Amino acid sequence: MTIKTFSTTPITGQKPGTSGLRKKVRQFQQPHYLENFVQALFDVLPSAAGLTLVLGGDGRYHNRVALQTILKMAAAKGYARVLVGRGAILSTPAASAVIRHYQASGGIILSASHNPGGPDGDFGIKYNVGNGGPAPEKVTDAVYARTLELTQYQISDAADVNIDLPGIHSLEAMAVEVIDPVAIYAGVLRKLFDFPAISRLFAGGFRLRYDAMNAVGGPYAKAILEGELAAPAGTVVNAEPLEDFGGLHPDPNPVNAEDLIAHLFADDAPDMGAASDGDADRNMVVGRRFVVSPSDSLAVMVALIRSPIRNGSDSSMR
Question: Is 315 a catalytic residue?
Answer without folding.
Answer: no
